[in-house]
Write a structure and sequence with these properties.
Chains A, B: Homodimer. The structure is a homodimer. Chain A is of the alpha/beta class. Chain A has 14 helices and twelve strands. The complex binds 3-isopropylmalic acid (2 copies).
Chain lengths: 352, 352
């Protein structure tokens, strides 16, 4: 089969890790007799530098027409230091999510046995952790009305949600829970926010259609504690955009394996796959960044395209590299002969 | 000296832990020859039950006239389950913060050596952690415009900040940093939110008046990770209301000592002191809740009233109880003959 893949390497370590994912896909293509047509596109700081626009029209077009989108990372400290900058890399990603309607961000958080020792948490706390975080991605305060007063002395961000936005991702969360441990935890701040109360009401209604799934509620402040105190209590976490941003990043470090976590962002027609880690500018170009999350994003993408066996093949190769210790220094430690980014990619491709 | 203390026991375990704090204060009064006049007031679920109002006018008056306010905890699961409830316990606390202008919430997070073993995090990660979190408490999305559409199908929360609100707490944060390790970390989401960009701009300006203090910025999602990966990097954390709610609760569990963490909420004329832990309804009335955070809130209050020696005396008594293991089961474990709430209170009072 032939697939068109939009590839957005992005900023920082994005290009180097995405290259390794492409190596893995090329190996899959060879073994399973597929054709992956990569269409490279720009987004983020690199796009601003090249075109002045963090999300050129060309990129939107490429993404719309592709069977799936593989994305690296976005962001450059240059822009963070200047809060008054009108054009920022992140706008590219936000606009892409909005334009393609990628409303459902799924972030699986798993404690890999071989990586538990890298976790800041104690083994007995995290061993066995397996969470799927469903974060709403095209609503809430991210996309609300923004204002600065004329004198620049006050600022405003609006946060809205409607039943439709809440429902579509909730159904996906409940359906996923049915294939897992049958529990959904809604994270909100219903004791303070009107939007959270709408989430609670809507999700409570929807839960009635999934009688085999248990629904629990947790205030976001409490959730931030529970994730550390007892992450194993969670199966599927469902939450709005901003809480999902915070909670999923927090969750990503507990397993000691942020360099291995991939995520998908799903819309009605399009789907984007990316590592959870950011652009990590300090490591850019040094061939030391861990490519496994990007490679596993490619596996998630194959899964999404219905290529289950192919996805498994990548996952097995990743497990092998962990087992043999052919890994970058974030996992292996600086003094233990870590492999370079490209060496890890080569190994994965060869093994496949 | 004579001091009038407004005492708000509140809900859940609030009354039992506050009682122990009063025992400690009574002991201080005796030894140091002070008079503490307690004026009890109601707030929260208990106030709703008694008067229909989570914050009766009487309570506001009592608090306004007191030299300081000692508060227990708020909240009852009964109200959480019903998102459409018009009257909720938490409204009492929010309205009190607003009415008294308690804009600056300070939450010290310390890893007590004797409690590190209770932490979900590894010893080497947390040993030495000592953070002061400055959370803005009367602005942001907590107090913005709230709306539900007529058909109930969409909801809205507005978030605003102005330079004045940001400045007053920022000055306090920088001044505190000057007496500590001279670093302020502003936690925001300036890559997405207009209000965060105003925070960044304003705080950057203010920092120029505190040249001996280093200012750093961290996106809230990254902060949620860094708090777990390397909490020792932080000295003073400064942040807006909602981020402060999440981040400070997260931080409170890393030391294994949430039962020991106290906080102050400061306004121009009034100051309120409370444990960080919540109303813990499951433990209500069982005489098992840890009273140390409430007792340490009383110490914070004495400090605020300028009674430094007296505050030290309470802190020494708390340390002694930890050393001797005269502690409740959350610290000691169920099977190791934990002391009851009131026994811990008695010990502290006797020791003083
Ligand atoms: C880059 C940034 C705008 C983005 C977000 O906040 O959504 C990132 O943190 C993420 O989680 O994908
Ligand atoms: C009870 C609740 C409204 C409150 C808050 O969110 O501010 C609490 O969580 C806190 O942190 O004091």
């Amino acid at each position: 089969m032939k697939y068109t893949i939009a590839v957005i390497p992005g900023d920082g370590i994005g290009p180097e890790v995405t290259n390794q994912a492409k190596k893995a896909l090329d190996a899959i293509a060879e073994v399973y007799d597929h054709i992956f047509l990569y269409e490279e596109a720009q987004m983020g700081a690199c796009a601003i530098e090249a075109t002045g626009n963090p999300l050129p029209d060309e990129t939107i077009k490429t993404c719309k027409n592709a069977d799936a989108i593989l994305f690296g990372a976005i962001g450059d400290p240059k822009y963070d230091k200047d809060p008054s900058a009108k054009v920022r890399p992140e706008q590219g990603l936000l606009k892409l999510r909005q334009t393609l309607g990628l409303f459902c961000n799924v972030r699986p958080v798993k404690a890999y046995d071989s990586l538990i020792k890298n976790s800041p948490l104690k083994r007995e706390i995290i061993k066995g952790t397996d969470i799927a975080i469903f974060r709403e991605l095209t609503g809430g305060i991210y996309f609300g009305k923004k204002e600065v007063s004329e004198d620049g002395k006050s600022a405003f961000d609006g946060c809205s949600y409607d039943v439709e936005e809440i429902s579509r991702i909730s159904h996906l969360a409940f359906k996923t829970a049915q294939t897992r441990r049958k529990k959904v935890t809604l994270v909100d701040k219903a004791n303070v926010l009107e939007t959270s109360r709408l989430w609670r009401k809507t999700v409570t209604e929807i839960a009635k259609q999934y009688k085999d799934v248990k629904l629990e509620f947790l205030f976001v402040d409490n959730a931030a504690m529970q994730l550390i105190l007892n992450p194993k209590q969670f199966d599927v976490i469902l939450t709005e955009n901003l809480f999902g941003d915070i909670i999923s990043d927090e969750a990503s470090v507990i397993g000691g394996s942020i360099g291995l976590l991939a995520s998908s962002s799903l819309g009605k027609r399009n789907a984007l796959f990316e590592p959870i880690h950011g652009s990590f500018p300090q490591a850019k170009g040094k061939d030391i960044a861990n490519p496994l999350a990007s490679i596993l994003s490619a596996a998630m993408m194959l899964e999404h395209l219905g290529l289950h066996e192919e996805a498994d093949a990548i996952e097995r190769a990743v497990e092998k590299s962990l087992l043999l210790g052919i890994t970058t220094e974030d996992i292996k430690g600086k003094n233990k002969y870590p492999a370079s980014t490209s060496k890890v990619g080569d190994f994965i491709a060869d093994y496949i």
